[in-house]
Structures are given as C-alpha cells and as structure tokens.
Amino acid sequence: MGTIMTSAPGKVILLGEHAVVFGQPAISLAIDLRLQLRMRMGHRSSLNGHPLSERTHPYITHSIKHLWNGGALELETSSAFPSGSGLGSSAAVTTATLAALMSISGNEISQESIARHAFEVESEVQGRASPIDTSTATHGEGILIDTRPGADLLWHISRDVREWYIHHCSVPRMTLVVGFTGISSPTGPQVAKVKRYVDHSSFAREVVEEIGSLTVDGLKCLRDQNMVGLGELMTRDHKLLAILGVSCQALDKLVEAALPHSYGAKLTGSGGGGSMIALTDKPEQVAEGIKNKGGTPFIVHTGVPGVRKEMI
Ligand code: MEV
User: Fold this and answer.
1) Which protein residues are within 6 Å of ligand 1, measured from CB?
2) Which of the listed residues 11, 12, 21 should we mutate to test ligand 1's pocket, taking the one with most ligand atoms within 8 A of CB?
3) CATH number of 4-170
4) Whole-model pTM over 0.85
5) How distant, in Å, are the alpha carbons of 64, 81, 83, 186 from that of 88?
6) Does domain 175-301 have CATH number 3.40.50.720?
7) What is the whole-number distance in angstroms between the Cα of residue 129 and the centre of ligand 1?
8) From ligand 1's centre to the CA of 311, what distance in Å?
9) pLDDT digits (tens, 9 = 90+) for 141-192
10) Measured in angstroms, how far is the CA atom of residue 121 from the centroid of ligand 1?
11) Distance CA 163, CA 119 (A)
C-alpha cells in the first residue's frame, strides 16, 4: 500500500455553539479552507517528521487506537487554517486521520462510521463536547443538530442523557469573512466554564434556551435566504455568548469592526479567542476592517464537501 491522501474542511458555527452541548439545536457550515493529510506505512510513527506522541498529537494517536492494529505510520499534514482558531482544526485532523486509516486498511470510507469514531476521539481528548465539529468535518455542506429526528437525518449520536440528531442542512452559497484574533483557544476549558455557569445559574440556563430558540428562527431565515434576518440573529447570538462569558475584548473588537458592512457578526466556535464570522456581501471591506483592528481575515465560502480521499 502506497501513500493515502485525505482532506477535511474547516467549519464555522452559524448559530448555537455552546448551547448545543446542553441539547439545544445548532447550525454549522463547512468552509472552503481544508486540511490535507498524507499517510503511509513506515519504520517509525511520525507526524511531519517528528515522533508521534499522545501528549502533543492526542487527536491522531486516539484515532489510530480506534482503527489501527498494524505497524508504524508516517503522517504529514498541511492546513489552510490555523489550529486553535475556532475553525474546527481538531475535527478536521481527526476525520482526515480516520478516513486515511479506513482507506489504508482496505476499507470503504464510511461517513457515519467516521462521525461516530471522531466524536468519541474528541470526547476522549476534550472531555464534554457535542458532535457538531466532527459531524461537520465529516459530512461537509451544512449540518443542523436537533433534539428530534426530522427530514434529512444523517445519524443519531447519544452520550449519557444527551442526544443529538444530526441532519443535512441545505445552505445557499454564502460568503463569510472569518476574523482570527490570533489568540489560540482550546475548546475544553471554554465548554467547562459554561457548564459551571449553567450548573449554578437559572439565568445562564435561560440564555442557553434563548440561543436555542434563535437558532430555530435562523434555520427559517436560511431556508428563505433572508440574510438580513439571519444577520440580526447572529449579532444577537454574539451578545448572548458574551453573557455566557465566552467572548473577549479581541473578539468584540473584530465583531464591531465588521458590523458596519455586514448583515451580522458573531464569535464562532468555543470563543475565548479564536475567530469571529461576519455575513456580508462586501467581503473586501469587512476584511479590511478586521485587518485594521489587528485580526487576520479569511474570505470563505460555504457549500463544500466533507472528509474525502484525494487522488495523488
Ligand atoms: C465548538 O466548535 C463548539 C462548542 O459548542 C463545543 C461543542 O459543541 O463541542 C463550543
């Protein structure tokens, strides 16, 4: 078996991050920034020439434990988006590794199986998480996570008393501007912080429910291609996430810089740093505003495929 190459997309959460961990709905979109992974059998397990270790490469080593009994593997990755940027780099590397492992073992790549294993891997590494990032990297396009099964159901994932029904969500081709704060922020601590707040405060629980209900409204806007309505909901969602304590000065500054030329803007992913997104039809102006405030802009598009094997 020679070299296998796979790729997986980054993602942005349009509405509903954090609330989804508590069983509320959320909408997530794959974006046209991809991570690529090459895998081949070798003499010493390595990533980009460095020895593979559980401490520094937990997502890859856990993925290997799930699907591989064979010998040493040499891996190389390259990514169009930075890790810790809130754009789903751990989900992308996990799903791309799992797809490569299926392929190098001579098996068909199964989206549902990748989504299930990838959720387990993320949970093992991060602690409490939802399947939103891993299912988006797996399926691509758009994902709606809901508490009930509906049309376009892809798969159902449960953990303790929580259940997530993951649906395909049709999305129009949209242009978004991502603004990376440059602050790398892992998901686990942000999720734990919100859990502590929600466990102790009925106000925080109400905020989580309000995020859930604006996500349902957002789904209707998306279906009607109502960008004005969707943008307003995104900006409201940002304010609610700030109340939950997951925004920061750098994110607020980039959201403010984007708003004059956008339908709406919000942090995306776990917050505490990472990135924000703006929905706009003036991407160059928004990107300029983000750059002027010290952020790194990426103009991205939706409607891209999930994890897949690439021809080499
Ligand atoms: C991270 O991209 C999204 C969070 O809701 C965590 C999760 O759902 O696993 C913050």
Assistant:
1) 13, 17-18, 20-21, 129-130, 132-133, 187, 191, 269-270
2) 21
3) 3.30.230.10
4) yes
5) 19, 9, 8, 10
6) no
7) 6
8) 31
9) 999 999 899 999 999 999 888 899 999 999 888 999 999 999 998 888 999 9
10) 14
11) 13
